[in-house]
Amino acid sequence: MDYLITVGILGGINIISAMGLAILTGYTGLFSLGHAAFMAVGGYSSALFFMKLNVPFVLAVVLGGLVAGLVSLFIGVPTFRSQLTGDYFAIATYGFAEAIRLILNKWKYVGGAEGMPGIPKLTNVWIVLFFTILLAYLANNFTRSQHGRNCVAIKQDEVAAQMMGVNVFKTKLMSLFISAVYCGIAGALLGFYFSYLIPALFGSARSSDMLASIVFGGMESLIGPIITSFLLFAFPQLLYVLDKYRLIVYGLLFVVMMIFRPQGLLGYRQMSKEGFRKTVADIRGIFRKKGVTDGKGGQ
Known about the structure:
Layout: H1 2-27, H2 36-53, H3 57-81, H4 86-106, E1 116-117, H5 125-144, H6 146-156, H7 158-163, H8 168-194, E2 196-197, H9 204-217, H10 223-238, H11 246-260, H12 273-298
Antiparallel strand pairs: 1-2
Helix pairs in contact: 1-5, 1-8, 1-9, 1-10, 2-3, 2-4, 2-8, 3-8, 6-8, 9-10
């Protein structure tokens, strides 16, 4: 039971970080390879707020997210003013993430490479559930607002969006800021669950896993990345019974997904009743088609 609770808590933290990246990558079209850096900033900042300044736990988590958002401006302002997009922006975020990790490795005040131990274990399943529901509600409202539509317009055609009056620089910066806040909150919850933080927790693999959940879940979708971010974490844990063969099965699932659902698990489905009804209808259609096929084969 404790193991399942652990999977649920860490899966929920993955969902929060994936929702943040979905706003930047899925809706604005900016691929990032360095969002683990914002998790690190949020985690270390919230721990310092709580342990050094005696800030209440929930407020420390929120402030950690806001600090991560402010730090995102250091990479967002120069890259967006230089109009970096595509691979160039992805490489810039990767370099930024490595710089943050190396700074934390050398910063003795927060423990350096040995990390920061002694963080109280305050994150539990109810705290994670509260933040997940709240942030999912806020993200859904954002994507449905004019700001969210501006993000989609930039993704589809940046030049056309600018000609229609969209402030491309501010919209991109806001998207990056919000995504960093989400990842910062996820990092804070992670630190208060593990009771320690080390820079190695926030390497490039964590950023890649976040990006994979967006691609597999579906671009311009929140519910898709929410589902896949949890599954991509939980499924490998359940495969531990297969010992060394679990990675083979896990990799095979990636290949099957890309072959049969290149648009992602839920494509462009939104968090709405209509999106839910369409998903249910698709599932029913698959089973009906299978039933018809089986019926013909039996004749």
